[in-house]
Amino acid sequence: MEIRVKKDELLTGVDIVSKAVKEKSPMPILECILFTVIDDEIRLMANDTEFSIETVIKGDIKETGMVAIDAKTLTGLVKKLPNDDVLIITDEKAAAIKCGKLKANVPVRDGSGFPAVPVVSRETAVKISQFSLREIIRQTIFCSDDKKANKMMGAELFNISGNRLNVTALDGCRIAFRSIELKDSYEDRTAIIPSKALKDLSSIIPGGVNDEVEICFTDNHVLFGFDDTTVVARLVDGKYFDTEKMLNMSYSTQVKVNKRELLESIDRSTLFLSNIDKQPVVVDITGNTLEWKITSSHGSMTEDLDVSTSGNDLKIGFNPKFLMEALKAIDDEEVTLHLESAKMPAAIKDDAENYVYFILPVNFQ
Amino acid sequence: MEIRVKKDELLTGVDIVSKAVKEKSPMPILECILFTVIDDEIRLMANDTEFSIETVIKGDIKETGMVAIDAKTLTGLVKKLPNDDVLIITDEKAAAIKCGKLKANVPVRDGSGFPAVPVVSRETAVKISQFSLREIIRQTIFCSDDKKANKMMGAELFNISGNRLNVTALDGCRIAFRSIELKDSYEDRTAIIPSKALKDLSSIIPGGVNDEVEICFTDNHVLFGFDDTTVVARLVDGKYFDTEKMLNMSYSTQVKVNKRELLESIDRSTLFLSNIDKQPVVVDITGNTLEWKITSSHGSMTEDLDVSTSGNDLKIGFNPKFLMEALKAIDDEEVTLHLESAKMPAAIKDDAENYVYFILPVNFQ
Question: Do A73 and B104 lie within an 8 Å CB cutoff?
Answer without folding.
Answer: no
